[in-house]
Design a protein that fits this description.
- By secondary structure, the protein is of the alpha+beta class.
- 50% of the residues lie in helices and 19% in strands.
- It contains 22 helices and 22 strands.
- Strands 11, 12, 13, 14, 15, 16 and 17 form a seven-stranded mixed β-sheet that branches. The chain has a five-stranded antiparallel β-sheet with strand order 2-1-5-4-3, sandwiched between helices.
- Helix 10 (306-352) crosses helix 11 (367-440) and helix 11 crosses helix 12.
- The chain is elongated and about 150 Å long.
- The chain starts with 10 loop residues before the first helix and ends in a 13-residue tail after the last helix.
Length: 792
């Protein structure tokens, strides 16, 4: 073993440091890695050679990439030229196809025009000839235009089967048409496009003598016919009269884009419509049109270049594969050459960060392997020293943890309110959906029983949140005029089961007991906490007595019970025969988290909660106790001269349909609570508008044309609180009723002001409670009624 005078070092330390202690490690001191650093520097030359080889391989990969890109560009350019020539030829073929179809229809019209001209000659140009021809199915088939003109090109008779073409328009078109023996072409007038044939008849048909008149046969080309031509020619068609588009097979949006792009210009050879590029080919449509009529065929580049894109993708994939293969090759060569040195360098860096377990795998007998083994030996020694240091650090952290725990306990009061608020949202969803299940499972006894168990558990959880809020003094009070005798009597059955059998329980009810105004649930909590504490104070058994009676506190008694003031009270006392308390303990019993119970058997919140409830009920609490003489708690609640309300809980209005449905805007940031509230309000027959926050609610109110009769909003929401939202909405909607809902409220001046302008609903709530509160608010004549809290 090395001693203080005999330094410990690795075999490489002396060699690398020249016999100097620069690379040595003295016990209990930090390690000096000077020797290792020098060896690493000696290996840098090899690493530079590896980098040079890596650069050469990288250059090879770049060359492959450049050649691949160049090949891709050449092939793409060649394919584009080929595609362009193919599109040009396809456009010309499409025009030839359309001309062939037109010629076939022209032949049909010409035959029928000859027959009509002969008939007109026989009847001497009688106008009835046109009427009879248009009514003859054999003659009028595939024809939409029949016209008869005299020798001066005046229209004598005109009939159309579908389109409305005026006589004046027909005469103008006829007068501008060539006066040959017969002619074929296109007429455009009054918004209709016709393929027409003109046939002149003479007094001597064989010698072409004097002109007696002419007949016109035509067929209208509508959007369906244009679409059919486009389908036959596999292209898009555009008919233009001058610069005006008459008809097209394009969509309405593309047609508007085309008009804006062309304006008064002629059709270019190529045109871009939206995201699609077309090649164009045009021909003129003759015969009497002013401005002239033209037909343009559009062939899409996108369809023709689809194969080109597939080819590009294939070439790109091949190029990427080549680049990836080269990159993998470079990585493999570099990794096999540099991994041992890199691993050692990372091990040194990890050790500097306190990591002793970084994997080092020295292989072979080269310099890097030797340095790695020496480094592992020094790291093991340093790790043993580090373990000792961590043990001392753990002891220090344990002491600090105890201090932090005490500080955390001091902050629990501030956290409890927020926890209770979120828990109330969850309980709202649980209770609400359970009530819906109860209504839907009336025929299933087993499932109905399970659902009622869920409701019962949710009710108990609601009681727990009230305890948290009571301790924080943030609970929403639900005051009622109470008879304490009735309340304690109803609790006796529960209390007898709670108290052990070796404790004698007695309840002395006062005669003609006065009424108090307090929250029944909170008073039950006070009694429960006091009884539990009394039972814990009598581990060997004893007696527990609850007593109620009227009490008049005079000046003399008030002096002995500070801070009580003289007046009429109802006294509720809980006395036990337990071990009692000394003066020091009695002075701290109402402090939060103070407890005399064993660790893990008490939180120190019970009596603090009692104190908070009594104070918020405008009462006082007093305790009398001595060691081994038992304890007596006295709760003084002000007496009121009002009739006690029924103990069935808060009156709820059944959720039946209303006679006049209203519109309710529900604003709640919790989605599950918002959906449940919407379901409850809809079940009552109202129209529901829902928003997740104040900003969305304002948007709905500004854009909605229908009236909004009531706002149901959560009080605590991100970005915008409920009272701020209500204020803004009342500026937009006159006569708007307000119902606030929340799991807790801090009773300050601001809350009192906004609660006076609306109603309040305590979370968690039931459907009947929600519907009843909404109905109560809607029945009121003003949205500024005094706030009334309601229990779920």
């Amino acid at each position: 073993m090395p001693t203080q005078d005999e330094p410990s070092h690795s075999p490489l330390s002396d060699a690398d440091s020249g016999g100097r202690p620069g690379g040595w490690r003295w016990p209990g001191q930090p390690i000096d890695f000077t020797g290792i650093s020098r060896v690493l520097k000696l290996l840098l030359n090899d690493r530079k050679n590896l980098r040079l080889r890596t650069k050469l391989l990288s250059s090879l990969v770049l060359s492959i990439t450049a050649l691949t890109c160049a090949t891709l560009l050449v092939v793409r350019h060649s394919a584009q030229l080929q595609v362009r020539r193919q599109i040009n030829q396809d456009a010309r073929n499409a025009l030839l196809t359309i001309q062939a179809v037109q010629h076939q229809r022209e032949m049909v019209l010409s035959r029928k025009g000859d027959m009509l001209a002969t008939l007109a000659y026989i009847r001497g140009g009688d106008a009835k000839t046109i009427q009879e021809a248009s009514e003859d199915p054999w003659q009028s088939g595939d024809c939409d235009l029949f016209a008869l003109a005299n020798k001066k090109s005046k229209i004598v008779a005109l009939r159309t089967t579908g389109a409305n073409l005026s006589v004046d328009t027909a005469e103008k078109l006829l007068q501008r048409s060539p006066r040959d023996d017969s002619g074929a072409g296109w007429w455009f007038g009054d918004g209709h496009l016709f393929q027409v044939v003109l046939q002149t008849y003479y007094d001597d048909e064989f010698r072409k003598g004097k002109v007696l008149g002419s007949v016109v046969m035509g067929r209208e080309l509508d959007s369906r016919g244009a679409s059919e031509l486009g389908r036959i020619s596999s292209s898009q068609l555009i008919f233009r009269s001058g610069s005006h588009i008459v008809m097209t097979t394009l969509s309405v949006a593309d047609e508007l884009k085309l008009e804006q792009q062309l304006g008064n210009r002629s059709m270019p050879e190529e045109i871009q419509i939206g995201n699609e590029r077309f090649f164009t080919s045009s021909i003129a449509l003759p015969l009497g049109n002013d401005p002239p009529l033209s037909l343009t065929v559009l062939k899409s580049y996108n369809e023709a270049t689809a194969s080109l894109r597939r080819l590009n993708h294939l070439l790109l994939a091949l190029g990427l594969a080549a680049v990836l293969g080269g990159g993998i090759l470079v990585f493999v060569i570099t990794d096999r050459s540099t991994r041992p040195l890199t691993c050692l360098a990372e091990g040194v860096r990890a050790l500097g960060q306190g990591d002793f377990n970084y994997p080092l795998k020295p292989r072979g007998g080269d310099e890097v392997a030797q340095v790695t083994r020496a480094f592992e030996e020094m790291r093991s020694t340093l790790q043993r020293n580090e373990v000792q240091r961590q043990q001392h650090e753990a002891q220090r952290q344990q002491l600090e943890g105890q201090l932090r725990q005490a500080q955390k306990m001091d902050a629990m009061g501030r956290l409890a309110g927020g926890v209770a608020h979120d828990f109330n949202n969850l309980l709202t969803v649980i209770k609400g959906n359970s009530s819906l299940l109860v209504e839907g499972l009336q025929s299933n006894e087993r499932l109905l029983g399970c659902t009622r168990h869920i409701e019962s558990a949710a009710d108990r959880a609601t009681s727990l949140t009230r305890q948290l809020l009571a301790f924080c003094r943030m609970q929403v009070l639900q005051p009622k005029v109470l008879d304490l005798n009735v309340l304690v009597s109803e609790m006796c059955k529960l209390l007898r089961r709670l108290i052990r059998e070796d404790i004698a329980f007695t309840f002395h009810a006062g005669e003609s007991l006065g009424r108090v105004k307090a929250d029944p649930g909170q008073i039950e909590q006070v009694i429960m906490n006091l009884v539990v504490n009394a039972g814990d104070a009598m581990p060997a058994g004893g007696s527990l007595t609850i007593e109620t009676r009227n009490l008049t506190v005079d000046e003399q008694l008030a002096v002995t019970r500070p801070p009580i003031v003289p007046g009429q009270y109802v006294l509720l006392s809980v006395a036990d025969t337990g071990h009692g308390m000394n003066a020091e303990t009695k002075a701290r019993i109402f402090e939060p988290f103070f407890t005399t119970k064993e660790q893990g058997k008490g939180t120190g919140l019970g009596l603090a909660t009692v104190y908070g409830i009594v104070k918020q009920s405008h009462g006082c609490i007093w305790v009398e106790s001595d060691s081994d003489k038992g304890t007596r708690f006295e709760v003084y609640l002000p007496r009121v001269d009002e009739v006690a309300e029924e103990s069935a809980g808060v009156e709820e209005t059944p959720g039946t349909l209303v006679r006049r449905p209203k519109t309710v805007l529900i604003v709640e940031d919790e989605e599950d609570v918002r959906q449940l509230a919407c379901e409850f309000i809809r079940s009552a027959g109202h129209t529901v508008l829902a928003a997740k926050d104040g900003a969305e609610a304002l948007t709905i109110a500004e854009k909605s044309d229908e009236p909004i009769h009531l706002l149901l909003t959560d009080v605590v929401m991100p970005q915008m609180r409920g009272p701020e939202l209500a204020k803004k909405l009342k500026g937009l909607r006159k006569g708007l009723r307000i119902v606030y809902m929340s799991g807790y409220l801090e009773y300050n001046r601001a809350n009192e002001e906004f609660l006076e302008e609306g109603y309040f609903l305590q979370k968690p709530f039931s459907r009947d409670a929600l519907v009843g509160k909404v109905a109560e608010a809607l029945r009121s004549g003003s949205s500024t009624n005094r706030s009334k809290a309601s229990a779920a």
